[in-house]
Specification:
Helix content of chain A: 25-40%
Structural class of chain A: alpha+beta
Radius of gyration of chain A: 20 Å
Distance between the termini of chain B: 82 Å
Helix content of chain B: 10-25%
Strand order of the largest sheet of chain B: 3-4-8-7-9-2-1-10
Largest sheet of chain A: 8 strands, mixed
Strand content of chain B: 15-25%
Number of helices of chain A: 8
Number of domains of chain A: 2
Oligomer: heterodimer
Number of helices of chain B: 3
Largest interface: A-B, 21 and 20 residues
Order of helices and strands of chain B: HEEHEEEEEEEHE
Number of strands of chain B: 10
CATH architecture of the largest domain in chain B: Beta Barrel
Chain lengths: ~240, ~210
């Protein structure tokens, strides 16, 4: 019995990683500081080795470390985009840590980012499709906003913007078409991916709004309504937000 | 008749060499075993403090760690810490989380005491006095020897557990409630037992006593 308990304790206490103080803070192993002196208080960390995360024994989130050249290059792009958000706004949406790594996946499906509002962390795949990387940063950041202010983003109000016969999929990966190219077909959606779930649709509207700013010209009346909805709520969260 | 064999000079040298080798090996064993051998033990009675009422003395296996508390930075946190120190609550508490040359953590009064150590739960225990609010001071620099109150990933969950950083930790600034800084004896903390790849130390070292100077 004593031997059994000792073996059990060994497996409970041992970790497949060498713990550091960053792990203590955000529960992601194998990270080091990249830059913590940004004006808006964001702290950029990078993976020094691959890491796996997840709830309980199922660690189904994977990400890998990058070479320095890729890291330096993409850090500049990511920082330029995230610098658009002020310290006060980031505090309101509870985001502080940006984890930079590559080939990020969840349950084997590649993704641009994984937000975690409990640990105030956004993991970003710095090698995500370069055509969409910058917009995807804002898309993933929206999920942090959405998670923190769920009560403001009313799903039924949003659904009512769409054509009556339209139905979202059951999940963001249930639909086969994840295309991120901009649609101009009057369907009420920015991209095919936006048709997957309400949350992804909102994130696509937000990311287009932030990334294209004034360059965006919308004729689609449904998208116009969606943009107004998102703008109204973001200004409710922070009335100084600059679109 | 047995003829007496005379020991040669070279045999004598080898014999003396073996004796010396055995003595050095035996001596080294005791020197290496005593991890505290070269650690200076600071006696607070020989030191003058500006604010003796804010001095806490943590006695660990290798000696005293003298900590200055900062009630002006985090009044509630220091008040909680002093309350627990005065009741000797920390005596016999394990240094349950130790990251080599980076951080030591102790103060789980529910599952981390010498006579009631629960490896499955240590680090999650409470003091029974309730949680207190985080007192974040963005100007407080978490440099080597800084002492802070531990919490869960949520703010306002501080209780009795505290940590001391053994290297500068700028990432901790604005994250944890500062308690104070180690004035003397940080080398004592560097000798606290750790085990690589274990986030909780099996058979850990314990705080012998934690007292206030006044």
């Amino acid at each position: 019995m004593i031997l059994f308990r000792a073996i059990l304790l060994f497996f409970i206490l041992i970790t497949p990683l060498k713990a550091n103080t960053i792990y203590n803070l955000i529960k992601i192993p194998n990270l080091e500081v990249y830059n913590i002196d940004s004006k808006n208080g964001l702290r950029y960390l990078y993976a020094t080795k691959p890491f796996r995360l997840g709830v309980n024994i199922k660690k189904n989130i994977n990400c890998y470390n990058s070479d320095k050249k890729t890291l330096d290059l993409n850090y500049r792009i990511i920082k330029k985009n995230l610098d658009r958000y002020s310290l006060s706004f980031l505090k309101k949406i509870n985001l502080k840590y940006i984890v930079l790594c590559e080939n990020l996946s969840i349950a084997g499906i590649n993704t641009a980012g994984i937000p975690n509002n409990k640990t105030r962390t956004l993991i970003l795949d710095i090698k995500f499709n370069e055509n969409y990387l910058e917009r995807a940063i804002h898309h993933e950041l929206f999920h942090i906003i959405n998670d923190n202010y769920k009560e403001l983003f009313n799903d039924n109000d949003w659904k009512n913007f769409n054509k009556k016969d339209f139905e979202y999929s059951d999940c963001s990966t249930c639909n086969d078409n994840w295309n991120l190219d901009q649609l101009n077909d009057g369907s009420g959606f920015f991209t095919e991916y936006a048709k997957s779930t309400i949350s992804e649709d909102m994130a696509e509207v937000f990311s287009h709004l932030i990334f294209y700013q004034d360059e965006i010209s919308i004729r689609d009346p449904i998208i116009k309504k969606k943009i107004l909805f998102i703008k109204k709520i973001i200004l409710k969260i922070d009335d100084t937000f600059n679109f | 008749m047995i003829k007496k064999i005379k020991i040669s000079k070279s045999e004598k040298i080898i014999f003396v060499f073996l004796i010396i080798l055995a003595s050095v090996t035996l001596g080294s064993y005791f020197v290496i075993k005593n991890k505290c051998l070269f650690v200076k033990n600071h006696n607070p009675e020989n030191i003058n403090f500006e604010k003796p009422e804010n001095i806490a003395i943590l006695n660990a296996p290798c000696g005293n760690v003298i900590i200055e508390l900062y009630p002006n930075v985090s009044p509630k946190g220091v008040e909680r810490f002093k309350t627990l120190v005065r009741s000797s609550a920390y005596d016999g508490a394990a240094f349950h989380r130790v990251i080599e040359n980076k951080l030591i953590q102790a103060g789980d009064l529910e599952f981390g005491k010498r006579d009631n150590l629960d490896y499955g739960k240590v680090g999650t225990g409470k003091s029974g006095l309730g949680l207190i609010k985080s007192e974040i001071d963005t100007n407080f620099k978490y440099d080597r020897g800084s002492v802070g109150l531990a919490r869960t990933y949520k703010m306002d969950t501080e209780d009795s557990q505290f940590f001391i950083v053994l290297q500068d930790e700028p990432l901790f600034e604005g994250e944890y409630t500062p308690l104070g800084k180690v004035l003397y004896g940080i080398e004592v903390l560097e000798k606290i037992k750790f085990v690589s790849r274990f986030h909780i130390v099996p058979r850990p070292d314990f705080i012998n006593t934690l007292k206030l100077l006044d």
